[in-house]
Specification:
Elements lengths: L2 H31 L6 E5 L2 E4 H17 L4 E4 L13 E8 L1 H5 L6 E8 L2 E9 L4 E6 L2 E5 L2 E2 L12 E4 L7 H12 L5 E3 L4 H9 L5 E7 L1 H13 L3 E3 L13 E6 L4 H8 L13
The structure holds D-MYO-inositol-1-phosphate and calcium ion (2 copies).
Length: about 280
């Protein structure tokens, strides 16, 4: 490793430590609130937020600010006091899978990524109920609780378990149905676990072979995409472009890499008017 690479790796591992610390504090908070009463508010089409989302985001941001006062934030929940730019941009989804959380279904997670120079430097996804921390940083392998993980080596569609999810864009729900119609005869099975970030972590760990969604935001994918890539997988939009890092609102197809193109041909439903959704 040359001096620049060594420097980058040590900066990335410092960011990773901050992300781990913030995720674990927020994990404790959302675990404590898990069985208590909660306030639920609708914020958009099929889109909910709870008091726990706001509390977890505030805790994560304050812990990061204590360590890195010059950094900025792109966080899912409204928070006008947070600076929106800085030397490093922290992309935070305080609870990914709020619908599950609010109904006390256990698939949800906390997702935190640190971005600089348009690259994700470090990312963590914490599943607080199972105590599973997925992580990666530039120059370091993807890990689950500090043990290295890898994407699956499935090479036949018929062996695959593919996950997907419903979007908050009404028209794109039909695209999801179209993709399901094309995939279902070809694959072993399909899952909707209700948390995009957790699904990405499971692709990285080889528990799922791929995941697609017709519309996600940066906070859903930033940490997970780095973890999948460092675990040997591939992340792109459904039409095959690079996944945007700080701007969301696009599709994603995340896979073990081996089956990426075969899956893309099925998910993309050629000729479907929503294929070019990102460009409209
Ligand atoms: C949602 C979840 C869900 C996905 C939605 C996301 P949220 O995030 O990741 O699985 O289908 O598009 O918005 O609202 O629970 O943070
Ligand atoms: Ca989310
Ligand atoms: Ca969320």
């Amino acid at each position: 490793m040359n001096a620049i690479a060594t420097n980058e790796a040590s900066e990335a591992s410092a960011l990773l430590e901050t992300a781990r610390l913030a995720a674990s504090a927020a994990g404790e908070l959302v675990r404590e609130k898990w069985s208590g009463p909660r306030t639920l508010r609708k914020k958009g089409y099929r889109d909910w937020v709870t008091d726990a989302d706001f509390a977890a985001q505030a805790l994560i941001a304050s812990l990061i600010r204590e360590r890195h006062p010059t950094h900025g934030f792109l966080a899912e929940e409204e928070s006008p006091d947070l600076p929106s730019s800085g030397d490093v941009l922290w992309i935070i989804d305080p609870i990914d899978g709020t619908t599950n959380y609010s109904k006390r279904q256990p698939n949800f997670c906390i997702s935190i990524a640190a971005v600089s120079g348009a690259r994700v430097r470090a990312g963590v996804i914490l599943d607080p109920l199972r105590n599973e921390l997925f992580s990666a940083a530039n120059g370091l392998p993807a890990q689950l609780n500090r043990r290295q993980i890898q994407v699956s080596n499935a090479s036949n569609l018929v062996e695959t378990v593919i996950a997907f999810d419903w979007t908050h864009v009404p028209a794109l729900r039909q695209s999801t149905l179209d993709s399901l119609g094309k995939l279902s005869p070809e694959v072993h099975s399909l899952r909707c676990i209700g948390s995009a970030a957790l699904a990405l972590a499971w692709v990285a760990a080889g528990r799922l072979d791929a995941y697609w969604n017709w519309h996600l935001n940066a906070w859903d994918t930033a940490a997970g995409a780095l973890i999948v890539e460092q675990a040997g997988g591939r992340c792109a939009t459904i039409d095959g472009n690079d996944l945007p890092v700080t701007t969301g609102g696009g599709s994603c197809l995340i896979s073990n890499g081996i089956l990426h193109e075969s899956l893309r041909n099925l998910v993309a439903a050629p000729g479907h008017p929503y294929n070019d959704f990102e460009n409209r």
